[in-house]
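Summary of Year 1 activities. Much of the first year was spent building the evaluation harness for sequence design. The harness presents a backbone, in tokenized form, and records the residue chosen at every position. We chose the following record to illustrate the format because it has been used consistently in internal testing since the harness was completed.
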């Protein structure tokens, strides 16, 4: 018979069963959150976090779901199962069910058998959640990164139509023109660089 103990740390409850620890109240959003956790439960969270970090976006494989800000949170439920919450970049994006599946597979490989992936639709995903590193990877991949803050655009509708300067991801020229509102996918617009004459996608700010 395994011993079960319960410990209150601050305002969270830490439950220890045998050598497994789980705290139903721990929800982490980032690596920093994990470092702030009580030492003895850091390891499983860290292991799960790096497994999730390995999951890439099916459409832009150089971006992880952390880079995109699609990953929202990780917690452990009272049955010691993992709960991962993700927010689709676009509702109805077919890539999302693939991402949920990939998260389960990655965690399964890391040894986590009970995994629940929740889709959180509110608040809606915004390009503001994309990390700096993610935007850089996007440009290196040949796609112009979203310009400005979506939250700022909402408060200033004029700015929404005022974006003209999209920098060419190849030669960094600002001398570019929009060819079409929609590129290879709905979230991208098609542009062409007038300096190097190369067409490229611009990941729209939403
Ligand atoms: Zn160019």
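For this record, the design step produced the sequence shown next.
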């Amino acid at each position: 018979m395994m011993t079960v103990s319960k410990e209150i740390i601050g305002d969270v409850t830490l439950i220890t069963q045998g050598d497994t620890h789980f705290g139903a109240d721990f929800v982490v959003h980032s690596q920093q959150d994990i470092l702030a956790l009580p030492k003895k439960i850091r390891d499983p969270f860290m292991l799960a976090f790096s497994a999730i970090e390995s999951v890439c976006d099916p459409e832009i494989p150089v971006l992880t779901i952390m880079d995109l800000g699609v990953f929202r949170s990780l917690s452990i439920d009272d049955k010691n199962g993992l709960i991962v919450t993700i927010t689709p970049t676009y509702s109805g994006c077919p890539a999302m069910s693939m991402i949920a599946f990939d998260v389960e597979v990655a965690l399964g490989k890391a040894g986590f058998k009970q995994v629940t992936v929740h889709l959180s639709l509110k608040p809606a995903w915004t390009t503001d959640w994309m990390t700096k590193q993610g935007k850089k990877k996007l440009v290196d991949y040949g796609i112009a990164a979203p310009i400005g803050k979506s939250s700022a655009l909402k408060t200033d509708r004029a700015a929404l139509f005022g974006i003209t300067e999209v920098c060419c991801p190849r030669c960094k020229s600002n001398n570019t023109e929009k060819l079409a509102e929609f590129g290879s996918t709905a979230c991208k617009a098609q542009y062409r660089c007038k300096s190097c004459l190369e067409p490229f996608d611009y990941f729209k700010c939403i």
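The mean pLDDT is 82. Quantitative recovery figures across the full test set are reported in Table 2.
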